[in-house]
What we know:
Elements: H1 25-36, E1 39-40, H2 52-64, H3 77-91, E2 101-104, H4 106-118, E3 124-129, H5 133-141, E4 145-150, E5 152-154, E6 157-159, H6 162-168, E7 173-179, H7 191-204, E8 207-211, E9 236-241, H8 243-246, E10 254-257, H9 260-270, H10 279-288, H11 293-316, E11 320-322, E12 329-333, H12 342-353, E13 355-356, E14 358-359, H13 367-370, E15 373-377, H14 382-397
Amino acid sequence: MTAPGSSPGPRPLLNRRLAEFGTTIFAEMSALAVRTGSINLGQGFPDTDGPEEVREAAVRALRDGRGNQYPPGPGVLELRTAIAAHQRDRYGLDHDPDTEVLVTAGATEAIAASLLALVEPGDEVIALEPYYDSYAACIAMAGGTRVPVTLRPRDGAYVLDLDELRDAVTDRTRIILLNTPHNPTGTVLSRAELAAVAELAVERDLLVVTDEVYEHLVFDGEHTPIATFPGMRGRTVTIGSAGKTFSFTGWKVGWVTAAAPLVTAVRSAKQFLTYVSSGPFQYAVAEALALPPAYFDGLREDLRAKRDLLGSGLAAAGFEVYRPAGTYFVTTDIRPLGESDGFAFCRALPERCGVVAIPNAVFYDHRDAGAPFVRFAFCKRVDVLEEAVSRLKGLAAS
């Protein structure tokens, strides 16, 4: 018998599927920003709130008692209806709000529930590398095997090698996990690329889970949901979110749209995660999705200007800059600065310049491929970005 107060036996406490995942790099770098008083361009959250009318909609829901108790498991009808209207009006995708829309606790839960529902031990999941870190953890928790296909820098952008993607598919492949617009590289997959992915999915009878939370933050090109391609409506789980589009990331309101059998499967997993969440905020997001086009255009143009401000400043500081076609983030190469280790560079940068960034290597299985790349977030106030650019000038001088 184990003595009172002593540690358990030799078996590790953490489930071995999660053994490779420690504290996230975001927590480490955000703590470093606080400790050093640095400007935090690491984590992708805005430093101002979204539209006042959306915030007031949440206050109104709270006061009216809407959502203060458990909302319906699939999400409140008003929001499910608004999501369906959004998909129909923008992309021509018709979804039944009752059976083909599911509200989640942010996109992160949507990803987790989708993978837990659709992946069994031994299934392979192809993910575009570098990938958002929760993808790897969720694949592991589902007992799947992660198969990265690497986006590689070329001519100032990151590019998907379609031959490499095709070669990665085996008889064990279950899912292609897409992210477009892509975090962290800012790549927006073209119609031609998406058509090739869709053709492969249909040919090999694969499911596609697609994270499209940055759909309204496209600066170059256009966002096209893969669910709109021939043969994809019944095999695609599309994930969206209010946080990035409306600058209320703390509300954690996300969603899944898919054919009814897929939504039923995802809901079966989701109900044992949070069950429900964000009751009053769901009503507010329903109103947010109905904002006029001018709001979405203004958001995009504001972030485009911030992208250009930070990108130009990083280039002037000596970084090689990969201009993002979408998202909140710009990826840089630190080798022109005489550096090659992104982890060491990011951990030293707060003391050197008073700025925090994220090493891209954390988003890779092939760590060497990501070693010299560093990500900065530009979803901040202009004065904050200008101060960061001013501080980073010291790198070029040194």
